[in-house]
Amino acid sequence: MKLKFISMIAIVATLMSACCNKPKTYNSVDEYPEYKGNDLGVTYSPEKSFFRVWSPAAQEVRLNIYEDALEGAPTQVFDMKYDVDGTWTYTVKEDLIGKFYTFQIKQNDQWLEPTPGIWAKAVGVNGVRGAIIDWNTTNPEGWENDVRPEMKSFTDAIIYEVHMRDYTIHASSGSSYPGKFLGLSEAGTKTIDGLTSGIDHLKELGITHVQILPSYDYGSIDETRLADNKYNWGYDPKNYNVPEGGYATDPYSPASRILELKTMIQQLHAAGIRVIMDVVYNHTFVGDNSHLNLQAPGYFYRMNEDGSWGNGSGCGNETASERAMMRRFMVESIKYWVEEYHMDGFRFDLMGIHDIETMNQIRAAVDAIDPTISIHGEGWAAGGCGIPEELRAVKNNAHQFAPVGVFSDDIRDGLRGKWTDGNKGGFVSGRGLDESIKFGVVGATAHPQIDLTQVAHTNVAYATSPAQVINYMSCHDDPCVVDKLKAIHPEATIEEIIRMDLLGQTIVFTAQGVPFIYAGEELLRDKKGVHNTYQSPDSINQIDWTNKVKYAEVYDYYRNLIALRKAHPAFRMSDAAQVAEAIQFVETPANVVAYTLNGALTNDSWNQIFVIYNGNTTDVEISLPEGTWTAACYNAKINENGLGNFTEKINVPYTSAVILYRK
Length: 663
Ligand code: CA
Fold this sequence. Notes:
Elements: H1 2-20, E1 41-44, E2 49-54, E3 60-66, E4 76-79, E5 81-82, E6 87-92, E7 100-107, E8 110-111, E9 130-131, E10 159-162, H2 164-168, H3 181-184, H4 198-205, E11 209-212, E12 216-218, E13 237-243, H5 254-270, E14 274-279, H6 291-295, H7 324-341, E15 345-348, H8 356-367, E16 374-377, E17 405-407, H9 409-416, H10 434-441, E18 469-472, H11 481-488, H12 494-510, E19 514-518, H13 538-541, H14 547-550, H15 552-567, H16 576-582, E20 583-585, E21 592-598, E22 608-614, E23 620-634, E24 637-638, E25 645-652, E26 656-662
Parallel strand pairs: 10-11, 10-19, 11-14, 14-15, 15-16, 16-17, 17-18, 18-19
Antiparallel strand pairs: 1-2, 2-6, 3-4, 3-7, 5-6, 7-8, 7-9, 12-13, 20-21, 21-22, 22-26, 23-24, 23-25, 23-26
């Protein structure tokens, strides 16, 4: 009797839910319900595959099953049933392994193009259809024992920004996997001159984090025509939760890209290196027919009042992180990359497009997994945005989303000149901007000796801690350092360019904050003067490893500079109040910045440190604080054991840095 009663209730409940679960009509996308479950996309088992897609305003939704990733009509088509909170579901009670799928939405009486949906975690070639795979085949051997390398403070990080193709595509790299995920982590490779390359080069250089340019599935490269050797940075997202097929050895095998990216991360972890991924949630490759828009038209983007697309990205569209399901998607996507791929950090492209609340929720979500996972981004947008600046994660609002970090375009442009000023030059060219350098030295935190009205692009000490700011001289964007310096100084000799480069990087690596270099800078990389190389050929973008011999003194300097920073906690403070106490700037001539750094406060083996940067093209004489000082960096050389002792005053050679200490 009792059993019967329960089954009666179950039947009634089923009937009720069947009768009541109907798609609703909405006056605006803002009324769409949020679905809080974690089973969007496909849930596979050999017995059945369960599909769920969120599309509140759809009239009908179809599930298409295919034999092929690209070709042919669906072999099975199912009408999905409306379920709850704007979602539609269907269960296929057979083994779909190896097959492909799409969802298709009917809205406003029109059938849209098929889409794998934005929650797809595996796709076929070119990311057009979702793939049903056996996830057990995607983990490299020993994956369960993979752990993040230890990290105490983010100020201990040294970030190396790299594009897969740049690193290994040149024949001189000696790579077995040119342009692939596996190339970045390949051990034992040698340059054409017999020097280390691949992962061994990264270990030798001493960096702690690689920051990989977009490596989710992007749209600009045709994965069926990789032999064409086309190049793109990848800021054109197609499938956010799937690796890019062009970096896999077999883009036709949906598991290959997943396995190989995990293998790369595993090998880097084993080498003590963490992995940060560049993520571009702020816009998609296309608007109308993006996977976001084919699933819930108009919902995931900010539209202007006249119905045109918002364009804060400068790429034709801008996403709407403030909407519940876009925000949820971003948070869940980040968690997914951390949990499935063991990713250690994320660099948000045009983070200033996203709202502050979303960035705080992302930070909280990764904190719950591992607070040492880093989150930082570009604290700006590329145009006007659909929500006001006070709500957005721009640099000057950084106090409201700490500890999410921001790039300092202030130290960058202090070093090389404001990007708005053409080729006027900056501090390393002996052309001023001293206050931006000082602001960089204190990690964009509040310091009584800095005149914020004179800083390049801000009048706010935006960092709550040096751990919240990324210091750099160049990244993939705009001209790289060498090209920029050559443009500023067309008459300069290569020796002069090298001195400016080394001075700039010495400032980056002695400044409080998180230092960041662009891959190949340590080999004096250039890009043949091309400014925006996002789709330039390999001949422009590739790292030429013969430079490792040609500019051996540059490489040695970078390596020693990294070692020096790692050996001295005084350059890696993580507390803003300690920075304000430990750093005292002294009076100097123009184009010179000098300061004492209280090493004892940070338990450094150097009790007192005195740092001088001379941006002038002539030598300057600087008075020293009392006592005898030993130089660890002098005249474009670094040696911790000492490069001479100095008392009372020191001659600082042109375009160079001096680091002095007393034990
Ligand atoms: Ca792709």
